[in-house]
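Methods — Computational structure assignment.
A single polypeptide chain was analysed. Its primary sequence is given first, followed by the predicted tertiary structure written as structure tokens.
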Amino acid sequence: MRYFGRFLLAILLLLPSFAMAHGPTRQKLVLSVDVAAAPDAVWAVIGNFQDMSWHPSVFSTTGKGDNAVDATRVLTLGAAGGPTISEVLYKYDAAKMTYSYRITEVDVNVLPVTNYSGHLTVTPTASGGSHIEWKGAFYRGYPNNDPPANMNDEAAMAAVSGVYKAGLDALEKKFGK
């Protein structure tokens, strides 16, 4: 019984250090916009996994597999020869106007995230327009404790938010408010 008491005391003394030794937490982001165009018109522009020409930061998209699960694409950002992001499609439902994808390869200096998954969905609004929702979940680019400022949770959230906002703003400009 005496040893059990010492063991229990040791565990209780160590508990605070376990709480402080946690790594990064999964970040989640949801941005959306309502546009004047009908859902079918919006889906015709954003529903093809192999074509992100609607996003102003994407210079080109190459890939294979069309819209089938496990299709892949590589996004070249900015200009020819620019940084790339490789992605894989893991869910696609044209009838529900939604798809989900994961980043399989990205330089964290370009987009400071790891284990990123994203979802794009188009739904009708009461006015006959469309609600476009882009959501994602990810970890910061630096997986250990005490990340540098350019790879912490705030940097990851700001970077993904900037990507989503630029894309949604472009769609709002294309389809009207």
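Note: The first strand starts at residue 27 and ends at 35.
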